[in-house]
Specification:
Elements lengths: L10 H6 L5 E7 L2 E8 L10 E4 L13 H4 L5 E4 L19 H15 L4 E6 L1 H16 L4 E7 L10 H8 L1 H14 L1 H13 L8 H11 L4 H10 L1 H11 L8 E6 L8 H7 L5 E6 L6 H4 L1 H14 L11 H6 L3
Parallel strand pairs: 3-4, 3-5, 5-6, 6-7, 7-8
Antiparallel strand pairs: 1-2, 2-4
Helix pairs in contact: 3-4, 5-6, 5-9
Amino acid sequence: MTDIYPADKGREEAKGRFIAGEECWSNVGGYRMRYLRLKARRGSGAPPLLLVHGLLGYSFSWRHNLEALAEDREVFAIDLLGIGFSDRPPRDRICYSLRASAERLLDWMVEIGLRNADVVGTSHGGGVVMMMAALDRERGTGLIGRLVLVASINPWSRAGLRRTRVLGHPLGAMMFRAIVPIFGIFSVARGLMIERMYGDPRKITQETRDGYDAAIRLKGTVDYSLGVVRHWHRDLGELELVIAAIGEIPALLIWGSKDTAVPVSSSRKLKDKFKNSELQIFDGVGHLPYEESPQEFNRAVKDFLTRQPQVADRNGKSLAAEEDHPS
């Protein structure tokens, strides 16, 4: 494994401020992937829960949710390779497409023995999660259970398509790399992510700024962001094709009514693709409902996972029933 963090004396101190549960590391494709693991505070037999963050987020994004969600189930919150405090592979050595990211996470789940997990994915992470579910169904590996999609990217959202097309072009990427040193990655990231993501910007705390800055400041953030955007349009096209394969999976969709990043209008079209789905819209909330309205978010997720029966496999057999009555 390769440690490619930049030399930053304050990195460990900053990182330590934002850890909940146990900090763990796995070798994923020759690089270290960081994740937080919280054991259930009481045994209920509930499946484990995996949390997958958005484009410039990391496990810190779930700071208001981890303890509540770990009340009766084991919870895993990852830092995807290239962002957070996971390793930052050189941009010519890794692919950040939805499929490549999903394959890495499925391999990681196999490695640590994480099976039949319910999965929460937000924004870009929602796209990763849907791709994971499709690949899991294709392979018949039984790694993915129910889905919670939070303001997920989807083929029916038109917001930001022009910007991603520009940044995904080599010339646009070159211009972006030239701009970042002038304005600073903090200003660029805050303008694109934090300031626009809240329905009520007054709810943005200094802890929020510090937490995102601690990871964004690391070398490689620009490479990761451009690596994701490079595949954006092809990823959305592929996602539209694979969603049909996961339509039987129970899914909860959560959106904020003031989401300008992935407009709520697209949520209804995404919901229609799932035969057993629910859509909850949080009034006055932006793109990050788990941060802006955490108590409402935690209740919605826990209620859905408590009420909703376990997912059926692609042959229509209940995985829960299969485990209770092994052949």
